[in-house]
Amino acid sequence: MNNHIRWLLGSASVIILLWSIIVITNYIFDPLFYFHEVKERKFFHARKNKTAFIHFVGGTYDILIFGSSRVNQISTKKINALNIYNFGLRDARPEELGPYLSFVLNSLSASPPSRIVIGLDFFGSNLLRPQWNEHLAPQVYINELNEPFFRLRGLLNRNAFFRSINHLLWQQAENKKNGVAEKWTFKNYDYYDEVYGNYTYNPNLSKI
C-alpha cells in the first residue's frame, strides 16, 4: 500500500469520524425535534421544529394550545394530570393559525385531542400591525416535511450540531446556578408605543 492510498484512507476515516460525531450528537440531543420529544429545550426555528415534531413524532394529547409567543409562554409543566402540547409561535398572526391547526389535527387524526385552545392577543387583532416578512407561509414549512431525506439532512446539519453543543453548555451552566434566581430587566421599545398607540380592530378576526 503506497503513501497516497494510506493518506486517502486516513483522510476518509477522519471525515467519517467527524460526520459520525455530528450525526450521533444531533440524534441524541435532537435540537430540531425530528426524532423524539426533548424536555426543556428552546426551539431552533419554532415553525419548522414544531411542525416536524408533530409530523414525525406526534403523540397523544389531551389539549392543544395555539397562538403567538404570549401563548408560548404558558407553562404546561404544572398541569400534571393532562398531556398538553403548546403550539405557540413567535409573532404568530391569527391568519396563520388555521393552516397549522388543520395540519396538526390531520397528523394526530389517529388520536385527536379532546380540547383545543386558541389564544388571540391584542397585538394580533390590530389591523394596523406592521407586516413583517420574517416567516414564510405555513404551507411552506408543512410541504418541506415530505422532501426526500428531510430528517437525514437534519442529522447532517452543522448548525444543529452547534446548537446541541450550546444546549449542553447551557445545561451545565443551569446546574451550577443551584436554584439562584436570575435578575430580569425590562426595556421600553419604541415600536411598542407606536403599534399599540395606533390600534384599529380587525373586523375579520372572527372569520379567521
Keywords:
elongated, 3-stranded parallel β-sheet, 208 residues, single chain, 7% strand, mainly alpha
How does the SSE layout of this entry go?
Blueprint: H1 3-29, H2 46-57, E1 63-67, H3 69-72, E2 84-88, H4 94-107, E3 115-118, H5 138-143, H6 150-155, H7 158-177, H8 190-197
Parallel strand pairs: 1-2, 1-3
Helix pairs in contact: 1-7
Uncertain residue ranges? 181-187
Alpha carbon gap, first and last residue: 70 Å
- Tell me the radius of gyration: 21 Å
Give the ordered list of helices and strands. HHEHEHEHHHH
Number of domains: 1
Strand content: 5-15%
Helix content: 40-55%
Main sheet strand line-up? 2-1-3
How many distinct helices? 8
- Count the strands? 3
What value does the average pLDDT take? Answer: 80
Protein structure class: mainly alpha
Largest sheet: 3 strands, parallel
* Overall morphology: elongated
Explain what this protein looks like in three dimensions:
The chain has 208 residues and is mostly helical. It has one domain. 47% of the residues lie in helices and 7% in strands. It has eight helices and three strands; from the N terminus they run ααβαβαβαααα. Strands 2-1-3 form a three-stranded parallel β-sheet. Strand 1, helix 3 (69-72) and strand 2 (84-88) form a beta-alpha-beta unit. Helix 1 (3-29) packs across helix 7. The protein is elongated. Mean pLDDT is 80; it is low at 181-187.
Short description:
This protein is mostly helical and 208 residues long. It is built from eight helices and three strands. The protein has one domain (3-197).
